[in-house]
């Protein structure tokens, strides 16, 4: 059966060419499907590239970049060993200005993780725009590969944050007892994150009442519909996270005192004691650091310590690895073992 070029009052599309509206829809779906943390890290990396490029070359950045610019970026930020000692090529004045303008946290060379992340973000920016990708240039790839080896030979490996196991976690919880509504929230939040498998920051602050079901006096089940390890929101048995005992009691106390019945579970607590908007993912990091400081613990804990703490404590309690993975959501043994921290 054949139809004309204008069927039922609307124009037919060219199958070999994506329309402008469809192109916009594709971009919006890709953006919506990306996690908020990933988008934030991409934006931060691209802002840094733009600032560095303008200060280094005296012109506004424009894609595609030549491979030589990417190689300059690598030697500017990667520390290397010379006869005169360790050095990198970013001029001191530019380095200090980038810090002053808050594009960098501190002066000096980048960690290997940060450097490779910045390069991978630039690579993705070229890839999505279907531009010639300088990061795939043979010389750039070889330089980055040798840089990784150099860091490895020197033993400059990423330093992982300590695991927030039972003992330090209990010390942090004690600081919450005399801190009013904020203390009730922090206690419930820390235990919720730990008890549900060491949840990530965005998963904690994104937790909603509609996914929480009470199953007893001291028991809940939380349905984790979406996570980093289940980005397709597949319906799996391990999506159901039990919350029992002290974690359940702390959650009940927070919900009762705050009056939260719908929407996000964890909210801001203003100085007046009134509830504010939902917490941002960075607030989980701030809560962990603040409670660790209040407990007199060393500055070696972060929000990720909850995840490594759950895995490490599970191993100490001889929990089967399959059960641990069901709680964390990991699909790979290698991935979950990456969160294990050997204990004395």
UniProtKB/TrEMBL annotation:
<keyword id="KW-0238">DNA-binding</keyword>
<dbReference type="InterPro" id="IPR050090">
    <property type="entry name" value="Tyrosine_recombinase_XerCD"/>
</dbReference>
<dbReference type="GO" id="GO:0006310">
    <property type="term" value="P:DNA recombination"/>
</dbReference>
<dbReference type="Pfam" id="PF00589">
    <property type="entry name" value="Phage_integrase"/>
</dbReference>
<dbReference type="InterPro" id="IPR002104">
    <property type="entry name" value="Integrase_catalytic"/>
</dbReference>
<keyword id="KW-0159">Chromosome partition</keyword>
<dbReference type="GO" id="GO:0003677">
    <property type="term" value="F:DNA binding"/>
</dbReference>
<keyword id="KW-0233">DNA recombination</keyword>
<dbReference type="GO" id="GO:0015074">
    <property type="term" value="P:DNA integration"/>
</dbReference>
<dbReference type="InterPro" id="IPR013762">
    <property type="entry name" value="Integrase-like_cat_sf"/>
</dbReference>
<keyword id="KW-0229">DNA integration</keyword>
<protein>
    <submittedName>
        <fullName>Site-specific integrase</fullName>
    </submittedName>
</protein>
<feature type="domain" description="Tyr recombinase">
    <location>
        <begin position="159"/>
        <end position="344"/>
    </location>
</feature>
<dbReference type="GO" id="GO:0007059">
    <property type="term" value="P:chromosome segregation"/>
</dbReference>
<dbReference type="InterPro" id="IPR010998">
    <property type="entry name" value="Integrase_recombinase_N"/>
</dbReference>
<dbReference type="InterPro" id="IPR011010">
    <property type="entry name" value="DNA_brk_join_enz"/>
</dbReference>
